[in-house]
Amino acid sequence: MDKKSLVRRSLLKGLGAMAMSSIILNTDAYAKGLKSKKFHRLNLYNTHIEKSFHPKIFTNSGRFDVMGLFEVDKAMMDYHAYQITRIDLRLVNLLYNINSYIGFNRRINVLSGYRTPQTNAYLRKHTYGVAKHSYHIKAMAMDIHIDGMRLSRAKDIIRGINHTGGVGYYPNSGFIHTDVGPKRNWVTLG
C-alpha cells in the first residue's frame, strides 16, 4: 500500500473515531471558558507533507468547530507514522492566539506536532534534545517557524502569548518549540 493510501486510511479512521466520541461535549465545555473570538481561519502549513491547512476554529457562537479541529489534527499529524490524534484544545487555542497576533495572512509552518511514542523514541535515538516524556506524545506541543519573521522575533511573541506553557528557542535548527505543559523557557544551540 502506498503512502497516500496509508495517510487516507489513517485519516478516515481518525475521523470516524472522533465523530463517535465525545468531542463536541468536550470542546463545548472548554470553549465556554474562552473569551469571544474573531472567526478567522488558521493559516498552517505542514512542511513534511507539504500541505496547507486553513481550518475554521470557532463557530459563530464562539464554540470550537469540530471539522476545523480535525483539520488542525491533520496539520499536526505524525508524518513518520502517518497518524493523527486529537490535539490538546489548549494548544489549538495557543495556535489561534499566535496566528491572531501575527496576522492571519502570515503562515505558521508546522515542523512537528503530535508524535507517536514510537516516533519519539526513534527521534530520541537519532536527534539531540528530544525529551523521553515529550509533550509531543500527549499532543500538547509543536515545533514551528513563522513565514517572513525573524526567529528571535517569533520567539518573543510566543513567549508573550504563552503565559502558562513552555517555549524553547532553537536558533541553529530554525524553529521554536511551544507547548501547554508547565511554564518554562529555554534556549538550545545544538
Topology, number of strands:
7
In round numbers, the mean pLDDT is 85
Helix content: 25-40%
Beta content comes to 15-25%
Query: Which class best fits the helix and strand makeup?
Result: alpha/beta
Number of domains as seen in the coordinates = 1
3D shape: globular
Radius of gyration, taken over Cα atoms and rounded to an integer in Å: 16 Å
In the sheet with the most strands, the strands line up as: 2-1-3-4-6-5-7
The number of helical elements comes to: 6
Strand count, sense and closure of the main sheet? 7 strands, mixed
Catalogue the unreliable spans: 19-36
* Run of helices and strands: HHEEHHEHEHEEE
Write a short abstract of this structure.
By secondary structure, this protein is α/β, with parallel strands linked by helices.
Describe this structure in words.
The protein has one domain. The protein is built from six helices and seven strands; from the N terminus they run H-H-E-E-H-H-E-H-E-H-E-E-E. The protein has helices spanning 3-19, 23-31, 66-75, 89-102, 117-126, 151-161; strands at residues 44-46, 51-53, 108-112, 141-146, 166-170, 175-179, 184-187. A hairpin with a 4-residue loop joins strand 5 (166-170) and strand 6 (175-179). The model is unreliable at 19-36 (pLDDT under 50).
